[in-house]
Amino acid sequence: MSNPIVLIIIDMQQGMSWPQAGERNNPDAEHQIAELLAHWRASHAPIVHVRHLSTEPESLFWPEQEGVLFQDAFQPLADEKIIEKSVPDAFIHSDLEAWLRDQETQALVVVGVSTNNSVESTVRSAGNLGFNTYVVGSACFAFEKDDFFGHARSADEVHAMSLANLHGEYATVISQDEAFALLL
């Protein structure tokens, strides 16, 4: 496929589904991501799987334990790119940008977790690097978090604010159907 539209799936690891990860929103996100993954595979379009490897021994994503493993539904196939990272941004300390440029990438479709952390950080870099970037809001999720002033924010609020931060400046937030239509 020349000038491909690349699907980037961020941090869909086992630890993200554990209760210790926190209270989250969008319980349908995994289903939405799985549908996008199936669509990209059926279209023979390129897919990048991003995995977080923490440098903190207490982390759910410390290497060589189950939390760091990809969830079963998101196991990469042999011809799919894997990026490993130890910071939220998948472009930092990786060959992601070079690989995307080698693919002559037309656009990126980003999904995964968490919306306000690794998704937002990666999408900001993608936009700043000049990639035409889309975020499927229904295929991402976030966790509840206190704001800077100590006020509790629900996972829905954190998710919505993160999407607002990205839309129009770094990316375009789109629906699942709009993402499917990109490969028609």
UniProtKB/TrEMBL annotation:
Coiled coil: none annotated. InterPro entries: Isochorismatase-like_dom, Isochorismatase-like_hydrls, Isochorismatase-like_sf. The keyword Hydrolase applies. The keyword RNA-binding does not apply. GO terms for molecular function: hydrolase activity. Keywords: Hydrolase. Residues 6-177 form the Isochorismatase-like domain. This is Cysteine hydrolase. It comes from Marinomonas arctica.
